[in-house]
Amino acid sequence: MKLKVLLISLISLCCTVPAQSATTNMKTEVSKKEVSTTVVNTALGQVKGVVENGIAEFRSVPYAVNPFEGTRRFQAPEKVQPWHGVLDATRYKAPVPQPDRGKETVLLGAPGDLTLNILAPVKTAKKLPVMVWIPGGAFIRENASDAMYRGESFVRDGVIVVTVNYRVGIDGFMHIPGAPDNRGILDQIAALEWVQSHIASFGGDPEQVTLAGQSAGAECVAILSGIPRTKGLFRRVIMQSSPVQTVTLAQSERVAQTVGKLLGIKPTTENLARVPFAELVKAVVQTGKEIKDRSQWGMMSWGGTAFLPVIDQSLLTGTLTGNLAHHADPSVSVLIGSTEQESRLYLVPNGQIDKVHMSDSLQLIHDLNMDADIIKTYKKGNPTVGDVYAALLSDYTFRMPTQHIAQTLVNHGNAVWVYDFAWRSPAFNNRLGAAHLVDVPFAFDTTEAPKSKVFLGDHPPQSLIRDMHTTWVRFIQTGQAGWSVYQSQERRVMRFDGQSAEVKDPGKAIRLLWESYPF
Q1: Looking at residues 156-181, what average pLDDT do you find?
Q2: Could you give the CA distance from residue 519 to residue 511 in angstroms, rounded to a whole number?
Q3: If you average pLDDT over residues 66-94, what whole number do you get?
Q4: Cα separation of 380 and 382, whole Å?
Q5: Is there a contact between 244 and 405 (Cβ–Cβ < 8 Å)?
Q6: E strand or H helix at 160
Q7: How far is 284 from 393, CA to CA, in rounded Å?
Q8: Phi, psi of 255 (to 5 degrees)
Q9: What pLDDT band is residue 29 in, cutting at 50, 70 and 90?
Q10: C-alpha span between 118 and 59 (Å, rounded)
Q11: Any idea which residues carry the catalytic annotation?
Q12: Ranges for the Carboxylesterase type B domain (predicted)?
């Protein structure tokens, strides 16, 4: 049986008010609980947010006008215009239309303005550095309001956090004639431009922006780092478990034809705009199943999602790493890494790790056009057939792409720090391990969030929370990670675990197997 799994994270799963800003505090009754609010003046108008424990949160603040209606559908984002009165940003609005995680053919979210969330101290005497977070979700889901991404700990440590919603699926990442490609990436650029223009009103320093993300969000960070027009929008980047999966224009056109066939229409902007969002969501999910046919889709069948960034000769003029090699700003500092057992997230919770066969690993090796003998190396330290498959899949999808991005940027002249997340989660009968996503709550210090507990258990090591969160704060504030920069000879890496330590070239034998693979 050929096992297919999702290779891009489907489980993804803030601002300071400067002393000179005009703000007012008031009290309001919400669910019989007294809640404090604050109002900030911006160039667009006044914004009211919620205050709790000295931290202000401005929820679902619009940065672009609703791109899901009228002539704006499937087009580049349009900047939001100034408003009159006070914008109520005390409640989260629905995320963009996307498949529900529990019942994937059910619509989650709703059309509306593109929004971001801001967390910041209520008052600050100086401009603070800013982290802009791009959530992941395989380019078909995203949720900037996920509790795992709540940035209170960052704010307490002097960092403003902005989390960004953007278009996904058909609206964000499918080629449609007459529409710009990579609309989800264009949304993110618009959000970064909004931050440059307005974050100072919340106490943030627009010259001290760190762009960060995990999984598909990390790939977006990598793409944005290779686009010339983004120069100056951020000073540092953090990439957690980044794949490098893109599609050619021809491949995306084929995806569009598949969507059109499922919907019974020609996939034009006009026709697609008439389809209810619930039907579009079903088409997104079904197309993801259609591409699992290896005989028809080749290596795309190993990807788990059909909706990927497009090599459009505009934003992406070549491969992701090719774009970085030619266009990355060498002055941008880089923190990048992966978890040691990424793909166990997709194999352990559903029990599939016990259902794979050695033929699954051999088939992937064959499709990669790699030497079948590499299986011998993977059998070392991986006692079961499922462990071998999980390790191979982890390396193909996340770990070796991370290495390739890091080396590309080192060659380009960037200062790069690499980490390896090694802590084995005891979740799912002590089998989840150092899986995809497990590092995120440690970086955010959100290990107590309900979803975090599902994947971490009840007693994650406090030392690891301290080590990772402190590193992220240090990097955002100073551009220094706290260990040796990554170099081609030494390859010094921070291994995050219950007892973290700097190590030299971990996993060298595996790395060398992939050294010539054309990511």
Answers
A1: 98
A2: 13
A3: 97
A4: 6
A5: yes
A6: strand 160-164
A7: 23
A8: -60, -45
A9: very low
A10: 7
A11: 215, 342, 436
A12: 37-505
Q: Is the pTM of this model over 0.85?
A: yes
CA atoms within 13 A on the CB side of 266: 3
- Token pair of 127, please? 């401009």
| Tokens, residue 346 | 């997709």
Give the ranges where 105-176 is alpha helix by DSSP (H).
Answer: 152-156, 169-173
Helices and strands in the chain, H and E counts: 19, 18
Q: Mean pLDDT score of the chain, rounded to an integer?
A: 92
pLDDT band for position 108 (cuts 50, 70, 90): confident
- If one counts every other C-beta atom within 10 angstroms of the C-beta of residue 331, the result is 13
SS3 at position 116: strand
pLDDT at 84 over 80: yes
Residue 153: pLDDT band with limits 50, 70, 90: very high
318: exposed, middle or buried (Cβ count in 10 Å: 0-12, 13-18, 19+): middle
Q: Indicate the CATH number of 37-242+316-514 among 3.90.1200.10, 3.90.1140.10, 3.40.640.10, 3.40.50.1820.
A: 3.40.50.1820
Residue ranges per structural domain of the chain: 37-242+316-514
Across the strands, what pairs with 87? Answer: 47
Contacts of 516 (CB under 8 A, 6+ apart): none
- State the virtual CA torsion across 475, 323, 298, 398 in degrees, nearest 10: -10
